[in-house]
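User: quick one, fold this
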Amino acid sequence: MGFGANVRAADERGTGEILREVEPEDLLKFGLIPEFIGRLPILATLGDLTEPALIEILTRPKNALAKQYQRMFEMEGVKLRFQDEALHAIARKAIARRTGARGLRSIMESFLLETMFELPTLNGVQEVVVTGDVVEGKARPLYTYSDKAEPAQKSAG
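Assistant:
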């Protein structure tokens, strides 16, 4: 309030930032019954996840999504590598979709599913590299082949 106030539109404020200001009276006006509100002695809100936080969720935990996909590719004898720009693109996509951490799996599946299905039929693939363009749908993952790869046999038809 006043001349020095930082005035922002509702679109510029995050959901967590708006909900942080909720009071029990607001819940009454919203339609919750007083008996229910009385059982909630503390109101707590969570802030929106940032791009670095989403990247950390993708890579740091013991069962992080990136590690899960790398293990799946290892079952086929292939190393899966994510470039930093790819991780940033995945996080930006989750923020744009407003899905947070829950949407990370579907985003990763959207660009890795086809590669996972065709990988068993490819001979000599040593490494699959995911770039930012792959996440955005502008390119396909990069395959690195070993020198001693045998060419795929064509079936006589």
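User: anything notable?
Assistant: The radius of gyration is 23 Å.
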